Amino acid sequence: MIANHIHDALAQVRRVQQVILERRAFRGYSGVARAAGGLVSLAGAAVLSSSYLPQTDWAQLAGWGVILAAAVGINYGALGYWFLFDPEARRDFLRLMPAVDAIPPLAVAGILSLTLVVRGHFDLLFGTWMCLYGLVHVPYRLSLPRANYGIGLYYIFCGTVCLLTPLGQFLHPWTMGLVFFIGEVSGGLLLHQHRMVQEETP
Questions:
Q1: 23 assigned to some structural domain
Q2: Which of 6, 28, 68, 150 has minimal Cβ neighbours within 10 Å of its Cβ?
Q3: d(CA 131, CA 117)
Q4: CA 90 – CA 72 distance, rounded (Å)
Q5: Do 89 and 83 form a contact (C-beta atoms < 8 A)?
Q6: CB 161 within 8 A of CB 131
Q7: Would residue 111 count as lying in a domain?
Q8: Angle at which helices 173-200 and 146-164 pack, to 10 degrees?
Q9: Per the structure, how many domains does the chain have?
Q10: Residue 185 CB: number of other CB atoms within 10 A?
Q11: pLDDT in 10s for each residue of the chain, 202 residues
Q12: pTM for this prediction
């Protein structure tokens, strides 16, 4: 009899935990948009490596600025659409908090990027961008699929390699393009698959 009560209590605790995790889940990011951002990075690397563009630090920096603007526009455009039109979001700003939590590491990335550019340390940019973008994944460890945290570790590993080896040379855009292509397409597929599973679950 006591064993049955314990079993029921444990089952209730598991159900409560599941409800809490469901409420923490953040569905504002689009897997398709994230994968599209990875494709933009790869296409951008191809353009930047072509002989038609000046192979200078400043020209490459301008190119990566355009790529960043395109990827941000795609991803945050999808986030804005979700917030405005998805019944789950209900235009409740509290549901955007996971995205807001990512702002500090992104702001630090901007500050460090500006510092490195001003001091002429362009070859440290790729590694810095990768490491800090990897840290952006940390606030999502409870609101996105667990495997997303692994993608963050992947970015930190790649960034560390770029910082410590010649692979991070700024005039070699394929390094950045391939790392972000693999990471963003993988992350996009992960988010898309996770959403599909949630929609199929009664």
A1: no
A2: 6
A3: 17
A4: 23
A5: yes
A6: no
A7: yes
A8: 180
A9: 1
A10: 19
A11: 555 555 554 455 455 444 333 445 677 788 899 999 999 999 999 999 998 889 999 999 999 999 999 999 999 898 888 888 877 767 777 777 777 888 888 899 999 999 999 999 999 999 999 999 999 988 777 778 888 899 999 999 999 999 999 999 999 999 999 999 999 999 999 988 877 666 555 5
A12: 0.83
Token pair 């995205």: residue: 99
Alpha-carbon distances of 103 from 5, 44, 63, 111, rounded to whole Å: 46, 24, 23, 12
Residue 18 lies in a domain: no
For residue 56, the enclosing domain spans 28-200
Among 202, 198, 200, CA closest to 27: 198
At 111, list the tokens: 């500050």
- Single out the residue of 172, 58, 161 nearest to residue 117, CA to CA: 58
Look at residue 121 and give its three-state secondary structure.
coil
**Residue that has been written with the tokens 């810095």 in this structure:** 128
The CA-CA-CA angle for residues 109, 172, 111, to 5°, reads 15
> In the Cβ-directed half-sphere of 134, how many Cα atoms lie within 13 Å?
18
Nearest-angstrom CA–CA distance, 143 and 99: 10
What torsion do the CA atoms of 42, 172, 118, 38 make, to the nearest 10 degrees? 10
